[in-house]
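Recall the central idea of this unit: under ordinary conditions, the amino acid sequence of a chain determines the structure it adopts. In this exercise we apply that idea directly, starting from the sequence alone.
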Amino acid sequence: MINIAHTADIHIGIENYGIINKKTGLNTRLEDFLNAFDRFVDYSIENCDVAIISGDMYKSREPNPTQQRELAKRIKRLSQYIPVVINNGNHDQPNSDSKARAFDIYKILDVKNVYVANKPDIFLIETKNGPLQIACLPYFPKSFLLKLEESKNLSINEINKKND
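Accordingly, the structure predicted from this sequence is:
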């Protein structure tokens, strides 16, 4: 049996009502979100064969470097024990296809055991309890539909109906 840990919509970067922690220099709300994700990482390492993150790890599609660093520490730790699959969500999509996504860094650096889906993809992953095939369908914006040949001459209303 393969045990899967799943999380989504962590939204790191929401810092409303927080204050700066004088010891760490981080916003206390950021620390709250990171502590919650730490519990996911710990649980996943102890109990699961693979961790799946279904997008929206950040509040914004352009997280600041501190937020990226803090998440990267946790992804790195998790990936040292089990495979990690990251499927981009709507908060992870830039407003242009030519712009990078926050998770692109894992692909560029070829981080072992981290699989990132920016487009529909299928990953065959070896786990300690056998192989697992995961199909990912990340969020894709209406601009993607506009590029498709069958959408070329449709109005926005027609595309909206098609997208529902």
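The two ends are 36 Å apart (CA to CA).
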